[in-house]
Design a protein that fits this description.
single chain; 774 residues; mainly beta; Immunoglobulin-like; Ferric Hydroxamate Uptake Protein, Chain A, domain 1; six-stranded mixed sheet; 44 strands; TonB-dependent receptor; receptor; OMP_b-brl_3; CarboxyPept-like_regulatory
Length: 774
Amino acid sequence: MKKGILFLILFFLVVCKGTGQILQGYVKTLEEKPVSQAHVILLNSDLKVVAHAVSGDDGFFLITSVKKGVYKLNISCVGFEVLQQNILIEENQGDLGVFRMQEGITLDEVTVIKHKKSLTTKVDRIIYDVERDSMAKNSVAMQILEKLPFVDIDLKTKQLQVMGGTNFVITINGKKNLFLSEANQYVARLLQGDKMKQVELITSPQGQYSDKTAVINIVTKGSLPDGIVGNIMIDFGKDFIKPNLGVTSKIGKLVYNVNYQPGYTYYSELTDKTKVINYRDDTIHRTESELITWSKDDSHELQLNASYDFSDNDLLTFTGQYTYYREREFQEGKTTIWNKKDNKVQIYSFENRNINREERWNGKINYQKSFRNKEGRLFTATYGVENNQGKKQYGQELTGMLGIEDSRGIFKNSLRLTEHTTGVDFTNPINEKHSYFLTAKLVARQYRSDEELNYDQYVPAFRASYSFSTVKMSLRAEVSFEKTINDMQFSKKSKKVRKNFFNVTPSASAIFLLSRKSTFSILYSVPSFRPDIYYLNPFVDRSDPSHWKVGNPDLEPEISQLLSMSYRFYTEKTSLAFSAKYKHSGNAIYPYDYTNETGALVTTYRNMNRSEMLSFNMNFEYKVPDKLQIWCTGEAKYTYYSITRSNFPLWNFKAAAGVYVTLFKKATLGIIGNIRPMSTSVQHTKFEYLTTATLRGEYTFTSRLSFLVDMDKFLWKHINVEHVKETDSFYYHKDEQWRGRWVSFTLVYNFGRLCDRVKKSGRGVKNEDRVKEI
């Protein structure tokens, strides 16, 4: 009786046939069975019925005379839970797709209609159910990913960011794939949401991605479509032009990406003034220098990435890169030296012309084999070989007056690196609550150069991790054993140096699900930093006559204690993240400065007695897609260094805030402010900063073509710090000029097309094309 009355009321409420379009769709169960006699009702914004249909035996229904717009859809049937969602109907849409209903609830039992949420929070991840989003079918993957909290698209680079950074990886069905990786995100502008089932934002990655901030895992309904897509971006301004061309294609199991980026930059004159007072030296007591620099750079970069899936358990990847860089730098300088009695000891002026050329080749092949004998248990063996070659040519013409001799020289060097990596991983979920992860790896590196450098490094490592998880909590304990063997000889005249480091690195973490939209996590670890060739090499870089750089082969590894805590909270439109970190090290590696006998400033590295770091970070965002985005980030950081008998405490801050407003459908205006520290040496005792303000505007001509303008305002940077070290105590003052304004333009064009290769070829549907439940 109730059903009859309900149907009679609906009959009189349905709007009679008028102008509009005809729509069709299907109603099915979660098991893909058709649902017959399901009542499909469309309501407008005033909740008035504008259309009604009943599904047939095959689940098919037809709705006539519907105009474009946003509607509320209600589907009800005896024995099923009521389905209610918002849908967008566009012109000439025709097909509404498939709607799936859940069995178990009858109409007579329904008293409250519950709106299903698209976002679900678990202990270590946030899950976005794409199938529950009525708008997702006609959205591209990039638009869907942006609906995740803590995930944004940078308006300038058009790349995804997670919590304001790019330290994340994108996987498809748990496997990394070039076709939708962080390096080829523009492909996501063409991939439609109807190929996606759900998206997982893993906020506490483990295993091979434990060093990442997050992992975005996309679960698809079937195999990804074939096709070829590309991206052209031209970034240019008054003093530079940097085009970028990228092409990505998928042909069956083969995926490849080619990217080429040339560039030219001209830097106008900058003037740096430096004053150094050395209290421990009576002869070189005070030094004042003025340096004027201008330069021209040009570069070329070519990248090739490819992967081939032999099967679900076999993956072969290749990465190749070629880089050419040339810098032509011109300097005019003047230096005056006084003794303690304020008498001029020496005055000299110079003109310096430097030409730096650098070429690098990099190639890496990696093969991965996986074995599975039960659901969730995975054993993976990998082998990779990498070859890097780099050539550097540094030419200098130095013309001096009053104390400096003219000199001319060309220095050439090539560095070759061959690296072999072998590893095995084993993941075993014992049951729903317990799991463990084991990994063993051996890395062998060989460095060779024209400067008679012989450097061999071997790194065997083993790591074991255990996890315990419930609905509200996740606990993890891990320990790593790593040994580093360094055999170094920097020239035939020098002795062979062997430095061996062995470290045991334990860590433990806990994650708590506080509510449906908030989590709290705490981590303790003992990280270690082992210096490599770039820190140990005693070669002196004299490309800047007034500022030399040199390594230190006597460095020891840095062992630290780290404690961090984080809190994350989100709603439909806002996301908020807090974190606090404390780090202590008894022998931290940091750069420090001193003046040598010629009066030049030298930067090198050493192990400090003690260092401490305390930082607080905040990330907030409010966004309404395609309308408004407000965000701000900030960090307050306290550092404390102890060098023998001297201490250096320092507070510094960095912050950024911005707002993007979509003025109308195709235009966006943004304002961004930024302040960041500029300290380069451990001995700095005052906060150095650089402040910028950016006005940004973008106009989107079509879904493929957009144009962006950036206007950056730089403020002057002033440095006034005191330097103290064991055998030297001196005052260092520097005025450094920055360009006042920088205007740049960016033109972006996306091209290409994805296609369903099943329909394209006309062949039958294979098992690999079918929807796979994950």
